[in-house]
TrEMBL record:
Keywords: Exonuclease, Hydrolase, Nuclease, Nucleus, rRNA processing. Residues 26-56, 238-270 are annotated as: Disordered. Pfam families: RNase_T. This is RNA exonuclease 4. Residues 74-233 form the Exonuclease domain. GO terms for cellular component: nucleus. Exoribonuclease involved in ribosome biosynthesis. Involved in the processing of ITS1, the internal transcribed spacer localized between the 18S and 5.8S rRNAs. Gene3D superfamilies: Ribonuclease H-like superfamily/Ribonuclease H. It comes from Abrus precatorius. CDD domains: REX4_like. Its main location: nucleus. InterPro entries: REX4_DEDDh_dom, REXO1/3/4-like, Ribonucl_H, RNaseH-like_sf, RNaseH_sf.
Length: 270
């Protein structure tokens, strides 16, 4: 069988084909090279933008609890919101909130005052008429709060006002009031607002509009927790100082009594 004859290509056609192959090859290599160079740049660019966005927008709020443990702890923080009764200038309890040492809510209830509310003070208290329609009655709330704070360290800001509104008392040795702690006072030993303490020591803004008792209680608790070591040491030092003063007074009294009895004995003998 005869082999088929190979068709002879025109030399010009061969050169043209080779030229096309070279051009296509160089274009493909350029395209591949450009894609390699562009891809990393675009990815890195996106990562950089993402990092910038996170640094600007994702600031951690220290008042957000780090866990969801709502158990009753050895220290609890309390904050109350008031409404106006009587002529409007008399304060009454409208809401009471307690958080544990992690800032998780353990009690938060609107409270219906004994007297008729004439001023809800909504711009500050955040309380509205609808909030008190199904609110807890005062005595129920008072009993529950008394039960929760009994035997525990009570933290808060200007707690005397909250306890007064609740008609409750608490042992002074178990109160940690951020409005009275010496390092939190101003230069003239004056009390400072909680929002100023939160801004300066915690770097957070609170009470810019309607007050949130949960947020305020968390702020007070965090201020206490961050200063706990020094705060508790100062409490112990104060207690020891008072004990020493008490012993000195007792010794002085004993000496005076002994002197008086000796003087009386001398007068009787003479």
């Amino acid at each position: 069988m005869k082999k088929p004859k190979q068709t002879q290509l025109n030399p010009n056609w061969v050169q043209l084909q080779q030229l096309k192959l070279k051009l296509n090859g160089s274009k493909a290599s350029r395209t591949f090279k450009n894609s390699d160079e562009d891809t990393p740049k675009s990815i890195l660019g996106k990562r950089k933008e993402r990092a910038d966005d996170e640094s600007n927008d994702c600031k951690i709020n220290p008042l957000v609890p780090v866990n969801d443990d709502s158990s009753l702890t050895d220290a609890v923080a309390m904050d109350c919101e008031m409404v106006g009764v009587g002529q409007g200038n008399k304060s009454a309890l409208g809401r009471v909130t307690l958080v544990n040492k992690w800032g998780n809510v353990i009690y938060d209830e609107f409270v219906r005052p004994i007297e008729r509310v004439v001023d809800f003070r909504t711009k500050i208290s955040g309380i509205r008429p609808r909030d008190l329609r199904k609110a807890k009655d005062f005595w129920t709330a008072q009993t529950k709060v008394a039960e929760l704070i009994k035997g525990r360290t009570l933290v808060g800001h200007a707690l005397c006002n909250d306890l007064k509104a609740l008609l409750l008392s608490h042992p002074k040795k178990d109160i940690r009031d951020t409005s009275e702690y010496q390092p939190f006072l101003n230069r003239s030993n004056g009390k400072r607002a909680l929002r100023h303490l939160a801004s300066e020591h915690l770097g957070v803004k609170i009470q810019s509009g309607e007050h949130c008792p949960i947020e305020d209680a968390r702020a007070a608790m965090l201020l206490y927790q961050r200063s706990k070591k020094e705060w508790e040491k100062s409490i112990k030092d104060q207690f020891r100082f008072k004990q020493k003063q008490k012993k000195r007074k007792q010794k002085k009294k004993q000496k005076n009594d002994e002197y008086a009895s000796n003087a009386n004995h001398t007068i009787i003998e003479s």
